[in-house]
C-alpha cells in the first residue's frame, strides 16, 4: 500500500506538470516580437568539428538570411578538418555575404567549442552576436526576429526553443519525439515559474557587453554545459534573459543505439551536475512509466493511470503541436510511450557515473559541472 501511495503521489505530480506545461505553452505562444525599427549589424559564430549529417544545408541557411548587414565566422581546430571544404564551397556560392574561416588549433582547456567561440568573438566586428551549432537549420527571418527582440535595451541574452529533426535512425527518431514532446515542456515551465535563468546550447544571441560582464568565454571554458552557465551568469548580473519567439530546427542526425545511449547519458549526467534539484524534478516529466507502475500495483486505480495518459497527450500536443508545429510527432505519436520509458530509464542511469564521451574524447564531470579530460 505504501508503494501504491508513493506512486499515486508521483503520478499526481506528473499530471500537475502536464497541466503546467500546457499553460506555459499558451503563455509562450502569446509572445510576439515588436516591429523592427533598428537593424543592428550582427556577427554569427559557427564552431565546427567534422561533417555532420546535412551540414552544408544547415550552414547555407545562415547565408540565406534576409538581413541588411551580417557576417558569418567559422572556426575549426585543424586545417585538415573536412568541414573546411564545405565552408569554402559555401563562401564561393555566396560571395556577397561577409564570411571568414579561422583555424584555431587545439584548445588549452577541455572545451574545444568554447576555445573556438572565444577566438571568433575577438575577431567579430559587431556587438550583437549569434552563436549557433553546426546542426542548426534556420529560416531567412531569424536575424530579423533577434533584431526586433534586442530593441529592448535591458535584454542581454536570448536563447531559442528548437524542433528536433532526426535522420534515418530509429533511435534518433525516438529521441526527437522526446525532445519535441518532453524537453521543451521543462523549459517552458521553468520560464513561467522562475523566469529564464539559463540558456540552451544550439542557438544563443547575446550582446558583446553582456559577454564582457560575465567574464567572456573564459568564464565558461571549463564547463560542459557552457550554454546553461552563460544564461545563469547573465541573469545573476541583472541582464534580461529570454526564450526567443524564434524556433530553430535542431538536426540531430542518425545515431545507432549505442551512440544514442551515450548521448542521452551525457545529457543526463551533465544536467545532474549543473542543476541537481532540477534533475530530481525530471521524474515528473515521464508520467506514462509511473502510471503503468501504479496500474500494476493497484489495478483498480486504472482511472488514475488513464488520466495520466490523457494529460501526457495534452502536454505533448502543447509543445510539439502548438509551439513547434512538428510533423514528426503528429505522424509517430504512438512512439511517445516507448520514448517516455527510454527517457525514464536514461534518467535513472544518469544518477550513476561521472564520465561522459563527447566528440571522441572522455571527460570527468566535477560536482559543479566542470570538465577534466580522461585518457581513453
Question: How would you classify the helix and strand content by structural class?
Answer: alpha/beta
Q: In percent terms, what proportion of residues is strand?
A: 15-25%
Radius of gyration using CA atoms only: 21 Å
Find the CATH topology of the largest domain.
Answer: Spore Coat Polysaccharide Biosynthesis Protein SpsA, Chain A
Quick tags:
8-stranded mixed β-sheet, alpha/beta, Spore Coat Polysaccharide Biosynthesis Protein SpsA, Chain A, about 375 residues
Describe this structure in words.
- An 8-stranded mixed sheet has the order 3-2-1-4-7-6-8-5, sandwiched between helices.
- The chain starts with a helix and ends with a strand.
- It has 2 domains: 123 residues, no CATH class; 230 residues, Spore Coat Polysaccharide Biosynthesis Protein SpsA, Chain A (Alpha-Beta Complex), CATH 3.90.550.10.
- By secondary structure, the protein is an alpha/beta fold.
- The model has no long low-confidence stretch (mean pLDDT 93).
- The relative contact order is 0.16.
- Helix 3 links the parallel strand 2 and strand 3.
- It is built from 14 helices and 11 strands.
